[in-house]
Sequence to fold (307 residues):
Amino acid sequence: MTELNINSFLEDITSKLPNLSIKRNEPLKHYTYTETGGPADLYISPSLFDEVELILSKARTHQIPVTYLGNGSNIIIRDGGIRGIVLSLLNLTDIYHENQLVHAMSGAAIIDVSQYAYKQSLSGLEFACGIPGSVGGAIYMNAGAYGGEVKDCLKYIIAATNAGEILTIEAADLQLDYRKSMIQTNDYVVLEAVFELSPGDQSTIKLMMDDLTERRSSKQPLEYPSCGSVFQRPPGHFAGKLIQESDLQGYRIGGVEVSKKHAGFMVNVDHGTASDYEALIKHVQQTVKEKFDIELNCEVRIIGEHK
Fold:
């Protein structure tokens, strides 16, 4: 990919979509919960499925790589940023329902979908009331909390391939597992998710959501920028407990430290960088491995180029 590829792509796409939001050399730290991340060559924010389809098609024609970004809650973007196109889905936010089916666009916050379901007296998404990710991100990693997972209530999705082809994929075909889905391996982008919920008592739904929200706020370091839970749960163990028992709470590299409130989180306490995050992650993994002989695998996605 060269500057010529980018310029020819811009000329092509703006002739077809003159009102499309495109930013050049856009700092991605503005779009991540860690408040870290270098620039994107192109940061594009479509508002319609047709726009996504055309962008992907033109990117393929001009040989420009595309990286998808939701609301940046469980991702670390390296300080060198991302080459090519970063396709933001945050303008795709519509939520509506048909009987017990709740439709949510990829950029909608999964918290908002949970709240919408509650207002319609629909049960099944209570577990998501505190998950900070987007719908697309929640599908991508089969997000879950407090005993619930996306796969428990997902019916189907609408996705686009990297060639711009639009597909409808049933939940049963998504290979949803613990923090995994076939979206990851196929490099698809989720455009819409449809959840199949159950009628419920609104007051009961609210009580459960209030309880989960209180539990989350009392245990998690929501007062600092972070990428959420950093590590997957090792079989038979809890990552946070292993880190705590390794005396790593409060351990800091640069401006990033292991949270004193919840050892499974790493918080940006003083203008930390993505390099600080990566170094701290590596240190925690090595320490836990040495002490317990247990591998900690990342739940957070780490992408982009080193500075």
Observations:
- The longest strand covers residues 189-196.
- The longest helix spans residues 274-292.
- The radius of gyration is 20 Å.
- The helical segments are 3-16, 49-61, 110-119, 135-140, 182-186, 202-219, 239-245, 274-292.
